[in-house]
Specification:
Layout: H1 9-13, H2 19-24, H3 27-46, H4 54-69, E1 77-78, H5 95-106, H6 125-135, E2 139-143, H7 146-158, E3 162-166, E4 172-174, E5 177-178, H8 179-186, E6 189-193, H9 201-207, E7 212-218, H10 234-244, E8 248-253, H11 271-277, E9 281-285, E10 296-300, H12 302-310, H13 312-316, H14 321-335, H15 339-342, H16 344-350, H17 353-366, E11 372-379, E12 389-398, H18 405-414, E13 420-421, E14 423-425, E15 428-431, H19 441-453
Parallel strand pairs: 1-13, 3-6, 3-7, 7-8, 8-9
Antiparallel strand pairs: 2-10, 4-5, 9-10, 11-12, 12-15, 14-15
Helix pairs in contact: 3-4, 5-14, 6-14, 7-8, 7-12, 18-19
The structure holds pyridoxal-5'-phosphate.
Residues 145-147, 173, 177, 218-219, 221, 251, 253-254, 285, 296, 383 line the site of pyridoxal-5'-phosphate.
Length: 454
């Protein structure tokens, strides 16, 4: 047994490796970390390992301190090619949006103060003009995220009443957001009509009763039904709703304000189309194809938006000032017609394939390992444009000769100083330049060298 060879807490604390840390951090905290590491060593000895030296334990403590004190979440290089990657924080912000959020964080602001009158103002006022201009709606409201926007909308308009939804649209978006569950939570009851693949206007019409508070349409944003299908267009539903005094609510999901066909992708429904069709309330996210910070946006008629504003949940799900500032700056890019050049996700989507190929080739030439540049596809992701991909080029690293193969290379990339997230295809590690920011390239190359060395 090696337990008696374990160094004492005091010996570890006196180790050279902890000298500078002891100057900065409180002694009781460091002592606790030393105890934790000694326990780890004790467990390892129980499993047959030898006892570490005081210097070894001190080194582990240093590592633990570094882990604890580094910013969290950590910056990660996204080499997956998935433009809106929910696990990686969705849309990166434009410099202008970052500056606006920083400014809002740094000092005080007129967040809820009307500078003209000196009276209390509304935080929504900062966004309303832009959202009305961009979508054509009469009124707008921004909240914490799209899930809370939909919950607020249903709670304010349909609690205690019925909402009619097509069976094909009673969907789960992911991360716990399911249309039937949100309806239940709002206090409204779900009346599902039609079938999974086909729903007609008469299905909605036959389900209308005194109890009907709304028709709800939800964009199936992460899957596609193909083949023998039928769905009712928002405009048709609006027409039916007008005859029965029932508003149409439309969860479009990604908040895409640009025309995706221009980039060779399928058409993604836009908020402005819903507004034009006469939809009462349209809901969308701020951090998907809008390319801004996390937020939920509602645009619609003055009367319906006012009902949402008055509901107690509106306060519970209100947008915070940093997101609000970032969102305003992001929306301004659209108003100034500079979204494609300034908003990172639109730059990534619109970049030419030749440019991607050129970047992959430059990565290849700075690597000492054998690698090729091959054609591939990048996905949009994040509950936008299901199944849609863009033509791309990737750096492909064959891994047969590398210890642990492609899985081990991916793991080493994730554990690098600046973690890199990549994917595997045909037994090779693939890195897509589309989603890697140019200033991240030196770090990426450095991490790759280490990861492929094994
Ligand atoms: C993504 C999505 C949501 C959830 O939006 P969050 O902003 O993540 O809360 C809701 N509905 C649809 C259709 C979506 O695509």
């Amino acid at each position: 047994m090696q337990f008696r060879d374990l160094p004492s807490v005091e010996t570890v604390m006196a180790a050279a490796a902890l000298e500078d840390l002891a100057q900065v951090y409180s002694r009781p905290w460091l002592v606790n970390l030393v105890r934790d590491q000694l326990q780890v060593a004790r467990d390892a000895i129980g499993k047959g390992s030898g006892a570490p030296t005081a210097a070894d334990v001190a080194e582990e403590v240093r590592r633990a301190v570094k882990n604890i004190t580094r910013p969290s979440p950590r910056p990660v290089i996204n080499a997956t090619g998935v433009v809106i990657h929910t696990n990686l924080g969705r849309a990166p912000l434009s410099q202008e949006a970052i500056d606006a959020a920083t400014q809002a964080a740094l000092g005080y602001s007129d967040l809820e103060l009307d500078l003209a009158t000196g009276r209390r103002g509304s935080r929504q006022a900062h966004l309303q003009f832009l959202l009305r201009q961009l979508t054509g709606a009469e009124a707008a409201l921004a909240v914490n995220n799209n899930a809370s926007a939909v919950l607020l909308g249903l709670s304010a308009l349909a609690a205690g009443k019925a909402v009619i939804v097509s069976r094909g649209e009673a969907v789960e978006i992911g991360g716990g957001f399911r249309i039937p569950d949100v309806l239940l939570q709002s206090g409204a009851s779900l009346v599902d009509v039609g079938t999974t693949n086909r729903t007609y206007l008469r299905d909605y019409e036959n389900a209308v009763t005194e109890e009907t508070a709304a028709f709800l349409k939800a964009h199936a944003s992460n899957f596609r039904v193909e083949g023998f299908t039928a769905a009712v267009e928002p405009a048709e539903l609006v027409e039916l709703g007008q005859r029965h005094q029932i508003p149409v609510l439309h969860d479009v999901g990604s908040g895409c304000l640009l025309n995706t066909e221009k980039y060779g992708m399928a058409h993604e429904p836009t908020p402005q189309e819903s507004v034009k069709a006469g939809v009462g309330l349209t809901f969308f996210s701020g951090d998907k194809l809008l390319g801004g910070p996390q937020a939920g946006i509602v645009v619609g008629t003055r009367e319906l938006v006012a009902r949402l504003e008055r509901h107690p949940l509106a306060r519970a799900v209100r947008i915070d000032k940093l997101s609000l500032a970032g969102l305003t700056a992001t929306l301004l890019h659209y108003l100034l017609n500079e979204a494609e050049g300034k908003i990172p996700i639109w730059r990534m989507i619109s970049v030419g394939v030749e440019e991607i190929e050129r970047r992959a080739q430059s990565w290849q030439s700075s690597l000492e390992t054998k690698a090729t540049v091959i054609p591939a596809r990048s996905a949009i992701g994040g509950g936008s444009l299901p199944g849609e991909t863009l033509p791309s080029w990737v750096l492909a690293i064959p891994c047969q000769a590398i210890p642990g193969g492609p899985d081990a290379v991916l793991a080493r990339l994730r554990q690098a100083e600046t973690p890199v997230v990549a994917r595997i295809g045909d037994g090779q590690v693939l890195l897509d330049p589309r989603t890697v920011l140019p200033e991240e390239e030196p770090d990426l190359i450095k991490c790759l060298q280490i990861a492929v060395a094994g």
